[in-house]
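request received
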Amino acid sequence: MAGRVAVIRGDGIGPEVVDAALKVLEAMDVDLEFIHCAAGYALWKERGLQITSETLETLKSSDVILKGPTITPVGPASYRSVAVTIRQALNLYANVRPVKFREGVPAIHRQVDLVIVRENTEGLYAGEEAYMGNSAISTRIITRKASERIAKFAFELAKKQRRRKVTAVHKANILKATDGLFLEACREVAKNYPEIAFEDLLVDAAAMRLVMRPQELDVIVTTNMFGDILSDEAAGLVGGVGVAPSANIGERNAMFEPVHGAAPDIAGLGIANPTAMLLSASMMLDYLNMREKAKKLEKAVENVLRDRKKTTPDIGGKAKTMEMVEAIIDELEAL
Ligand code: ATP
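response:
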């Protein structure tokens, strides 16, 4: 076997899109072993916890994780998000979210081809929150070590993908200590990459630039919460979260999941767009050094999107998830 893949099917539309991805990977005859692990809302209802220590051990010992979206109910009585728990437990510090226009998908902008690199382990996701009487406080932790690590990751990614510019997105004029430190770390790291342009942008200006002139953005590096918000905004420019993949990369482990959530409003209807999950699976194959297979999968998805005959309703089509999956498998066979 070329690799052991831990699979979390997730909640809501999770099982629908994960099963779609497994069906496609099976049709591609990939040399991978799949190990199913339970995590999320269904497990919490049954056993009072969203992820077990055995699952975390399986995830750590696998080569990669393929994860469907999981539900995190709102409010203090709820549990910590499964994705955030895994990212922190396995130190998956870099969240990589490519955002690209693909022909056939109804998009607000066509000139979009960028990557958001989001710091995944600290910031407002540090989990340090408390009530103080009628107030509530949240601690935003930013360390030099994590900031330098994510900045280096962004520049290395730019180099590998032959991209021309890295933009550090922050709010250092208001968050002088935390984002001041993040920006300083990015500036320091940028000095080691003279061949790649560097700029910084306030997060509000970045949000506007994404909408008005996204073609000016190439690699964005930013803190946890800003990255979360900007990546949904960026996905919205090119067809929405149903077509947006992501990778969570650490030193030893990596997890691939769609940007979208469990979408309870459409769960069980069989109309979830499998694109984000399939493109995440393509990123997984690339990470496992199965570059040709990764490219082939991306191409098959792109061909079906371009054709528009077998796409799901969220991007203007009439097909069911499995009809789109069948079309992608046909495409794979034809390529
Ligand atoms: P989270 O906080 O976990 O990101 P959310 O409720 O904010 O979850 P999503 O679950 O991503 O957001 O859903 C946002 C909208 O996008 C919903 O209307 C949902 O139906 C739609 N959506 C999300 N994923 C898909 C998909 N794969 N196919 C079609 N529509 C989707």
